[in-house]
Amino acid sequence: MAKRGPTYTCQACGAVYHRWQGKCDACGTWSSLSEEAQAAPVPGARGASGSRARGRVFALEGLKGETQDAPRIVSGIGELDRVTGGGFVPGSVLLIGGDPGIGKSTLLMQACAALALSGRRVVYVSGEESTGQVRLRAERMGLSEAPVELAAETNVEDIVATLGQGSRPALVVIDSIQTMWSGEVESAPGTVTQVRGSAQALIRYAKTSGACMILVGHVTKDGQIAGPRVVEHMVDAVLSFEGEGAHSFRILRGQKNRFGATDEIGVFEMTGKGLSEVSNPSALFLAGRDQAAPGAAVFAGMEGTRPVLVEIQALVAPTSLGTPRRAVVGWENSRLSMVLAVLETHGGLRLGQHDVYLNVAGGLRVNEPAADLAVAAALVSSLTGAILPPESVYFGEIALSGAVRPVSVAAARLREASKLGFEAALMPAGGAEAGDGSGLSLRRFGHVTELVADIAARAPRRDVK
Ligand code: TYD
Ligand code: MG
Q: What global pTM score does this model have?
């Protein structure tokens, strides 16, 4: 029989040890182990005698058969519905993570109010704020009239029992999962075991009742949802709510979604009356653009199915350090190194004595390789002092050979640029779509050297300085 005694659980990753140690071997976090009572053996599992409990016999089904497509609950907040894949699925569980103060409670209260006003039963359980505080927030957003049912509770058994009363709610919000505790788990609230146990109980309720459940999750300093990663595996969808402190807009991003795509983003702006939807993010990201300065190029990108234009800013300046500095905000560091290496090798640029700073304006994070061409243009423009042609957008992937490779959905990118008043697009030479009808003048590049030569030709003459 296995030795029973206290176990130590890593609060960062959930790894379990029989002895305390200073560092978690699994995730490398220091001082994250805390003592927890051992979980009770799973009922029905192989017992000490080795005999198996008798199971219930159930019928197996084929892939073909009757299933109705789950009718989705549309919140009416377009940007939220876009990220969830067209509305909440009954019986599903969503986890929303984000920094403190980013607006998770605000967004969820707005979603609750919208659904409640459409006649559905909605329950909002806050474990962090009193009902008075929640009410004040709703008042501030002008949502006091919405028949949302509120509670400030933290015990999962009580919550599940209360939810079982009356008609089945369409939506239940738990704000936040880290504050919940279950009497069946012998650990302090907030520990990994408690979070996991509470999540399990709530998920079981959602699956059996058919209510949609939204769990709010705190994030740690490095942006992971705090508590065990297992919660992320247990839920149907994980969304993250992000934003830069200095900017008023927020981005809702799907990280995992069993019922939809994960590459869609929802853009919101925090106002004095809650979050308002931004249905045309390009206009927002391009606001306040300085077109007369070198080092800025507009990238025609895609976020999911939606084209989004953003400005890419580069600053290339002579360094005073032994090892030049490379700093990136909003793009991948390794990708910048790659573009720099290609420009040095094939474009003849000398950047070894220069610091390089790259910034995606407005706080958006770009993940597409299609941004390579815009990044290269911004870098060359900053280095040479050449101002890029105004009203132009850039997109194209750069290969290690220096070739400019075609990217997907060029037509949608061109259409968006044309809609926002741009006149020209600088893009890869290959690719089938011409994007006809967009009205833009198209300049095509097959190799990065052509781009460098093109920009260098616009540079002010150095000897004039
Ligand atoms: P909140 O939803 O409480 O954040 P979270 O639940 O993610 O911790 O939002 C808190 C911030 O939002 C707070 O700094 C104030 C700001 N805010 C507004 O600017 N306008 C509003 O109408 C509301 C309700 C909040
Ligand atoms: Mg909150």
A: 0.78
